[in-house]
Amino acid sequence: MRFLKLSVAIAAIWALMTACSGSKGSSNKIPILAWYSIPAEYASEETYRDLADAGFTINFSHLTDLKDAMKALDLGQKTGVKIMFTCTQLGSDPEEIVKKVKDHPALFGYFLRDEPAAADFPNLATWAKRIRSVDDTHPIYLNLFPNYAPDNILGCTYPEYVHRFVEEVGLPMLSFDYYPVTVEGVRESWWSNLEVVSKEAEAAGVPFWAFTLSTAHFPYPVATMNSMRLQLYTDLAYGAQGLQYFTYWCPTPGIWDFNNAPVSEDGQKTPVYGLVKEMNKEIQARAEVFLGAKVLSVKHTGETLPPGVSPLEELPSQVKTLDTKGKGTVVSLLENGDWQYLMIVNRSLKEAVDYEIGFTVPVKQIGRNGKAASVKDGEYHLEEGDCAIFRWKK
After folding, report:
1. Distance from chain centroid for Cα 314
2. 20 to 30 A Cα–Cα from 226, which one of 27, 98, 124, 168?
3. How far is CA 13 from the centre of its chain?
4. Contact by Cβ (8 Å): 175, 242
5. Residue 226 and residue 97: Cα distance in Å, rounded?
6. Residues of the chain with pLDDT under 70
7. Quick one: pLDDT at residue 105?
8. Secondary structure of the chain in the HEC alphabet?
9. Strand partners, 336
């Protein structure tokens, strides 16, 4: 039996979806989390407003001191940003700390740790249980390894690792990190990672969250709009209900040579900040497509498919033809409310896709501004990493 009871899971997921959009608590925005965000020494109303202006709904600063963590909550309340709470004392005395913060209006949830091995799951389950004994409303969060972590680090195979986490720790969502875009190209095991996590999340009845990379470090290049679109829209095509950026603030370069984050180590906005702001505006303009959507299928086209994915062999009845001319795309069929959506994502960052599509019903295309425009059968162009979204009535 899962550690997390169904009623608790439903309540936590509801809090997850309704608490992410600022102090007014509206639920019409996709949760967008800034990972490794504003350091304590730079915490001010101005820096938090910059974060909100960039389109982030959740701030996650890696704070250790309770005083700094409480200040983050207060600044979040002033600027309409929710806070993923963490401090050293949350681990040493969770019940007492949770009592202090659980009623704060800016609290989003509680962070446990990053990338645990399977051997860590029992202690994490106990820790989460202690937090829930005081607050069973706000979600508890941590981030899992990607599938390229070796089995001897995970403690089992990757599918077993994700499944055991759901069964043994039982948090109200799954989150994993994977940065597929490297200086050599796109790692092909990324799509199989999404396959594993999305299917496990669906089976457990919980949402999953995924990442894009916004800070360069070896072997990852400086983020571009195309690279972020590829990652975020593919995440959404697989059903992600929360998006995360690694990182917002530039960490100390050190061994990884971190550089070109949205905000530099000394607090200056970089050109990437503007790209991230534009990206988040675009995502939220299309939020009604993705937020709360049910994924009916995710298939792939192309002469060569990534490992672990399924080829597109059958079209929905509303689509009479789809020809990507042998080029690689992700094709996702989503359902949300009264609508169904066909989403096509170009898997390549090296070449555009010209594709032909035809429909059997009236269809509109959802633009980057979120507006729907009527379309006709014909040939369309898809830039590198970009997506196209078509909508029809169920």
Report:
1. 28
2. 27
3. 15
4. yes
5. 42
6. 1-27
7. 98
8. CCCCCHHHHHHHHHHHHHCCCCCCCCCCCCCEEEECCCCHHHCCHHHHHHHHHCCCCEEECCCCCHHHHHHHHHHHHHHCCEEEECCHHHHHCHHHHHHHHCCCCCEEEEEEEECCCHHHHHHHHHHHHHHHCCCCCCCEEEEECCCCCCHHHHCCCHHHHHHHHHHHCCCCCEEECCCCEECCEECCHHHHHHHHHHHHHHHHCCCEEEEEECCEECCECCCCHHHHHHHHHHHHHCCCCEEEEECCECCCCHHHCCECCCECCCCCECHHHHHHHHHHHHHHHCHHHHCCCEEEEEEEECCCCCCCCCECCCCCCCEEEEECCCCCEEEEEEEECCEEEEEEEECCCCCCEEEEEEECCCCEEECCCCCEEECCCEEEEECCCCEEEEEEEC
9. 339
- The residues, any chain, with a CB within 8 Å of residue 172's CB and separated by 6 or more, are 4, 8, 9, 12, 13, 16, 139, 140, 206, 207
Query: Which residues partner with 333 through β-bridges?
Result: 297, 342
- Residues 74-96 have pLDDT tens digits of 999 999 999 999 999 999 999 99
Residue type, 189: S
DSSP-derived pairing of the beta strands 339-346 and 329-336:
antiparallel
**Residues 6+ away with beta carbon under 8 Å from 263:** 38, 50, 248, 249, 250, 269, 270, 273
Looking up tokens 């101005």, which residue turns up?
A: 46
Reading across the β-sheet that carries 353-359, which strands appear in turn? 319-323, 353-359, 378-382
Phi, psi of 165 (to 5 degrees): -60, -45
Q: Walk across the sheet containing 82-85 and list its strands.
A: 140-143, 107-114, 82-85, 58-60, 32-35, 242-246, 208-213, 174-175
